[in-house]
Amino acid sequence: SSGINAEYGGCAMLGAGHVTALEVDPDAIEDLAGNLEEYEMDNVDVVQCDVTAPSSFKEGVFDTAIMNPPFGTKNNEGIDMVFLDRALELCRGSVYSFHKSSTREFITRRMESRGYHVTVLAEMKFSIPQMYKMHRKKEVLVDVDFIRVARER
Amino acid sequence: MKLLTHNMMKSHCKGVTNGFPLKLSSTKVDVKEVEFNADFITRMLDRLEWGALVEAARQLGVGDSLPEMAPEEGGDEELLRSVHHVLLEVEVTEGELECPETGRRFPIRNGIPDMRLNEEE
Predict the structure, then answer these.
(1) Is A47 close to B116, i.e. CB distance below 8 A?
(2) B residues 37-66 near A, CB within 8 Å?
(3) B4 to chain A: which residues are within 8 Å by CB?
(4) Within 13 Å, how many C-alpha atoms sit on residue A107's CB side?
(5) Contact at 8 Å (CB) between B24 and B1?
């Protein structure tokens, strides 16, 4: 998934009052809409938008965000930071997100310099399938952190 | 798209100074029962822009139950249920959002607004 989503199904099922899913990819939206219908979830709204573009939402309207941002490629590095920055603008509370463990220090320094507090909640391995010719292995395991970025109170 | 979502959205067109609220029009509206959660509605009250909510609700023909002025915290249950109905039970399935300054329209299809802009916009 490539959108800020307050982890659609998960949150809706765990008792969020309402969930707004931000997603730009039409295929992902189709899958999502199908799942929402199949599981009869009535408290999720989907908005098709590009979170790296100027925001379609006012600042601070959400309580929290959960997301699985793209990690970026050689030409697109740092896109996960854009997602994180945008999520923090939209939320008044904490943001939960996945990032490569190799970027942990960079993210932590960057966030803390802005007054946020970063906690690594879990460490895991993501399997990234071979997507480009230059990837020699069929599948790569990447170390990933699940982090919480909280506002210091 | 529910009216709760509409109340959180604004135009992101280039050069716009105040893109809120987006003008709302609909060709298909569905009403579906959603479980009432008084705490959630109460918490949303000070986050809503009440005037915009009333205007959007009237646009959809469901604004009659809402008072002109935003209810104070700890409103009675009947009022909270009216707010709940308007926020979460009325779904714009087909329609349009329009930027109040540029007039740029964003379609709503299958309950999902498409806010994507072209590069030049």
Answers:
(1) no
(2) 37, 40, 43-44, 47
(3) 18, 45
(4) 28
(5) no
From residue B119, give the alpha-carbon distance in Å to each of A23, A64, A82, A96.
18, 29, 18, 30
Longest dimension (CA), chain A: 47
β A95-100/A139-151 pair status = antiparallel
ipTM above 0.85, yes or no: yes
Per CB-CB distance under 8 Å, the chain A contacts of B88 are 18, 43
- Of the pLDDT bands very low, low, confident and very high (cuts 50, 70, 90), residue B49 is very high
What's the sign of the alpha-carbon dihedral A40, A44, A45, A48? negative
Q: Which two tokens stand for residue A101?
A: 């463990």
A contacts of B117 (beta carbons < 8 Å): 53
> For A13-40, how does the pLDDT look when each residue is reduced to its tens digit (9 = 90+)?
567 889 999 999 999 999 999 988 888 8
